[in-house]
Every structure is written in C-alpha cells, then in structure tokens.
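agent: user wants the structure for ABC-type polar-amino-acid transporter from Allonocardiopsis opalescens. delegating to structure tool.
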Amino acid sequence: MTADPNAEPAAPVDARPLVVLTDVNKHFGELHVLRDINLTVHSGEVVVVIGPSGSGKSTLCRTVNRLEPIDNGTITIDGQPLPEEGRGLARLRSDVGMVFQSFNLFSHKTVLENVTLGPVKVRKVNKSEAHETAIRLLERVGIADQADKYPAQLSGGQQQRVAIARALAMNPKVIMFDEPTSALDPEMVQEVLDVMTSLAREGMTMIVVTHEMGFARRAADRVVFMADGRIVEENTPDEFFTNPASERARDFLSKILTH
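agent: tool returned. relaying tokens verbatim.
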C-alpha cells in the first residue's frame, strides 16, 4: 500500500465540523498542560499536531475520547457534547478510533480476534460479518496472511497495522493517532506511514500526533503546532514548513529539519 509521495493532500470531503474543542483547559496537579485550546477538525480532514515534547500534544489527543477528562471548556463530536461516563461515552468511543504508540493489542488473542472483538462486543455485529470485515481490513493494511498469528509473533510494524485495522473495524467517524510510529524500529516506520497516507487519501478524518515531518508534509491538510500547552499556530503544510509565522515554530523547525 504505497502512496505517491508527491501527491497533494486530499481535500476534506465536506465542510461539516466533526471534532470541535472550545476553550479547553487541562491540569495535572500544578502543571497546566492544555491552555485555552480552540480547534475544529472537519469531516475528511487530516490534521497533524506537532511540537516539542511536553507541549500537550498527546494529552490533547486523549481528551477527544475522554481518556483524559478536561477541567473546563467543551468538546463535541459530530455536534454531540462529549459524555462524562456511561453508555453515552461508550458509544462515543465507538465513533472515535484510537491508535496508540504501544499498540495495546490483546496478547492472548489472534490478530483476527483482536480486530473482530470490538465490532462483536460493542457494535453487536454478528461474528460472520465481523470476520469478513476483519479479513478485508487486514488485506487493506497488508497483513491478511498474519490473521491467525498472535501479536508476539509479529514485528512492531505489523502490530501497529493490526491496531489500525482494529480501529477501522469500528467504522469510526475519526481516528486519533498518538505518535503511532515512535515505538517502531526505523525500518518499520514507513510501512505504517504508508497505511496512514492511504487512509488520508481515502478521506478518513484523522488527528495525528507525530514527529514524522515527512508524513505531515505529504498527507496533512493542516498542521497544528503546539508549545507550552497552547496552539501557537496552524496552517497548510506548505505554508507552515516554508514560512512559519512564529519564532517558536521557526526555532522548533530549525532543530528537527535537516537541509
């Protein structure tokens, strides 16, 4: 599943706001990790969040399906406020896929079982339909031949592709990627980025926290730069990487980009 690295990012499918954060704040004790965050992600849009370590990127990602509760502000998903608990939150989490840096697969279940578990248990899909969908998704991410293996028998890149298939199996409205390649050996990074780039081309709404600047340039509709718990600036990849507006972003890019 390789994508044309020179292709332009796909335009959003429509202009409907899908994920909206308004005046969101979050503390961990005395540490103010999210400061007055305002961000709107539209259906079909790929937003890549970058910034130095400790800037609040992963926390922002985790607030969108309430893995981290916020102190104040509002978050809506497809027009619905983020529930605090109960069945409403479970339903919302079905609509918000999550791919973590550490895979989080069930080690005692096969690849196929990992992918079918959510649709059967949460979406109440019958097992044969879930099985067919899982095989199709494993083909989509290039590892259908690994369906009967256990996670420990797979490489890190293969495990992360299983995690992506598992998120897709829930038919989510948006998928959050929290540094999905940071735990991978360098030679495995590209196979995961290729899958993510293909999803972006297909119009999947994605919020991606990553240090992979090549992916941000190639696949993002918008780059959001965070520092010190704030969104410092956001722009198209071309504008951000060639003409960053803030001194903080210029300093960050000068340290991570080689010319």
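agent: one observation worth passing along. DSSP finds nine helices and ten strands in the chain.
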